[in-house]
Amino acid sequence: MKRIELNREGYYDRWNPDHLNELHSLNQLAEGQDCILHEDSHMRLKVFGMEPYERIPFRVLQHKFTLVCLTGGTAITRSCKGAIDLLIFERGETVTRSIESAAMVNDLQNIGEDQMIVALIEYLRPVTYGEWVDGARISTPSTPAK
């Protein structure tokens, strides 16, 4: 993924007033209306399909996550800190981010001419070796599961 900074953090003068109003009225506990494919105590898998120029509203992320672009495409994301970034994905590219503060608040807008499909994997808590998950024991790479 290529990331091009369009606006630095802390500068909101280039922002659309509607986006600023949405951000200011955001309920910090809101998760959005997402298509959740799977969720358990360790992870949550969501998929978003965006038509050309469609935008996913601001959402709160509180856990480490991986974003997988299944189709490739070009998008803009805005952060609650004022940054605006252009994101250019090749098909299958992934980005993993750890949340450094209490939460991360961003939107995502497909600015390409084709549909863009992304999967979001949120890691709700780490899995430890030797732990049972959905009927299977997690083993270290050198110790096969019994």
Written description of the protein model:
- The protein is mainly β and 146 residues long.
- The protein has one domain (2-137): Jelly Rolls.
- It is built from 1 helix and 12 strands; from the N terminus they run βαβββββββββββ.
- The longest helix is centred in the N-terminal third of the chain and has 8 residues, at 17-24.
- It starts with a strand and ends in a 9-residue tail after the last strand.
- The model has no long low-confidence stretch (mean pLDDT 85).
Q: Give the tally of β-strands.
A: 12
Distance between the termini: 39 Å
- How many domains make up the coordinates? 1
Low-confidence stretches: none
| CATH C-level name | Mainly Beta
Query: What about the largest sheet?
Result: 5 strands, antiparallel
* The named CATH superfamily: Jelly Rolls
CATH topology (level 3) name: Jelly Rolls
Backbone structural class: mainly beta
Biggest β-sheet: strands ordered side by side in the sheet? 1-7-6-9-4
